[in-house]
């Protein structure tokens, strides 16, 4: 990683490490050590914490606009 923080301690007591990310996310956060009192089951030592924001973005494909009901002329 370039500039900035390399390690941090979360409020739950877990220690995290920052490393270069992958496509779609510039930074990967890895749980370096789980805190003794951490109640979060997703905090597992040595595993990354994934950023799911990309999945929440609107689609980049053109979505057809829903049209109103059609009535026959005549």
Which tags fit this structure?
mainly beta; four-stranded antiparallel sheet; 1 helix; 4 strands
Please explain how this structure is put together.
By secondary structure, the chain is mainly β. The chain has a domain at about 5-55. The chain is about 5% helix and about 30% strand. It has one helix at about 55, and strands at about 5-10, 15-20, 25-35, 50. Strands 1-2-3-4 form a four-stranded antiparallel beta sheet, with no helix packed on it. Strand 1 and strand 2 (about 15-20) form a beta hairpin. The longest helix is centred in the C-terminal third of the chain and has 4 residues, at about 55. The protein starts with 6 loop residues before the first strand and ends in an 18-residue tail after the last helix. The model has no long low-confidence stretch (mean pLDDT about 80).
How many extended strands?
Answer: 4
Which series of helices and strands comes N to C?
EEEEH
Which structural category do the helix and sheet elements fall into?
A: mainly beta
The largest pleated sheet is described as: 4 strands, antiparallel
N-C termini distance: 70 Å
What radius of gyration results from the CA coordinates?
22 Å
Strand content: 25-35%
Q: Which residue ranges are poorly predicted, with pLDDT under 50 across at least 5 consecutive positions?
A: none
Give the averaged pLDDT, no decimals.
80
Helicity level? under 10%
Overall 3D shape: elongated
* Structure annotation, total helices: 1
**Order of the strands making up the biggest sheet:** 1-2-3-4
